[in-house]
Each structure stands twice: as structure tokens, then as C-alpha cells.
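User:
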Amino acid sequence: MSYFESKSGPEVSHFGFIAKMRKDSRGMALLKLILIITMTFATALSHAQYEGDDVYDPFADYSEFEENSQEEADVNFFRNGRFFNIALLMGGRMFTGGMSQYIEATATPGLAMTYWFNLRLALQFSYTYSQHLLGPIATGLVDVNNNPQPYQGNMSVNSLSFDLKYYINTNNVTRGLANLNPYLLAGFSQNTRNFSVVGELQVAKDDGAGIDMGFGIEIPVARNEMFVGFQFVYTYVNFATENDPLKNTQILLDGDMMNAHFVFGFNFL
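Assistant: Predicted structure:
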């Protein structure tokens, strides 16, 4: 009995050690499996975050070139551009429709101020004034001496305009024309005309909003400190009483306005 007891003891102890080793190896394998799954999940998560945040964007990378081009444009504007100018307008105002038949064209002085947003786009504020002869227009009326009493007098026009000017690039044309600054013009205006008729004490007033369309050209002189030019503007205007005939007549003073001016200005760089 003692022999079997002494021999069986070590055998049982040996198999128990093997079972314990197997149990420990299973635990290590399970730990390794958990570690591998954790690392795989962390790698996938970081890769997804990289794709969402740091993916290559050609448009974003191009912004550096866009900033450089904008900076170059700003430097060019400060070196060659103008901030604003003040100009004297000298020219004439003409009419279409019924006004062209009974109202004479005359000189129209004015003032203009232009502010530049960049080398190509500017905003112009201008004011013009003109005094025109009205008539004489036959009415069929006679005085006590049987003399005709025509409809005649004066008409004054005041115009306040707000126009955008777009300057056309002339760098690619002939060298002799490169210094010219042609532009297109569009905007709106507020126009007022006042009638003063012979034999009547009251002065009639008529307002109308207008749409301006035109073109012009500017030529720099005195190292770009001054300029001379020409500007033509057609104003489509609808006066409040243009569809009402004149007193004792069937005549309508409707129509639009055309302004042609020579421009003399001073640049503020």
C-alpha cells in the first residue's frame, strides 16, 4: 500500500501540473485574441477618422494658390488702381418722343464722383442740371386783341444718378490703345422736371425714376493724377404726367433722355 501510495502521489501531481499549464495557455490565447481584436478595432477607427478629416482635398490645397493670386491682385490695385475721383461733366441733354419735338436740347453741366471696388468695377454718383426752352406750342387760343396765345415757357431737369461702371481690359490690344480705359455703365436715376409757362404763376413739377445705360472712355494724363474722357448715357424714364396732354392741347411731353458729356477729372490714388 505504501508503495502504491508513494508512486501514485507523484503521478497525480504531474497530471495536475499539465492540466494547469493547459489552462494557463488557454488564458494566454484568449488574452492574445482580445488584444488582437482591440488593436484591429483601434486601427480601423483611426483610419476612418483620417479619411474623414485628413483626406487629400485638391480644392482645399488649391486655396494657397488662390490666396496668392488674390494678394497679387491687391498689390496691383494699390500700385496701379484708383480709390476715387471727382469729375466735371460738360455736355448736352437731348430727348426722344414728344419732348424732342417741343423742348430744345441745351447744355447740361454736372458733377460726378466715382469709387473703385477693384481695377474693373466702380460706382459712380452724378448730378446734372439743364434748362430748356418749351414751345412755342399752338393752342388755338387768342387774347383780347385776337392774337394767338401759344403755350411756351421753360423746363428745367435735375437728375441724380447711381451707376455701376465696368472697365474693359485693354492689355491685349495694340500698345497705343492700352492706356485707354473704356467702360460700360448701367444703373438708375431720379429725375425731376419743372415747367414754368408764360402767363401762369404756378410752376408744375413732375418726377420720374429712370434706368441708365451707357458707355464711356477715360484717358489718363499727368501721370494718372488727372484724366479726360467722354461719356454717353441713355435714360429710360417714365414721368408721372407724360401721358397727360398739355393744357388746351392734345400734345404729350413723353419720351426719354440722352446725355453726352466730356469729362475732366482728378484721381485720388
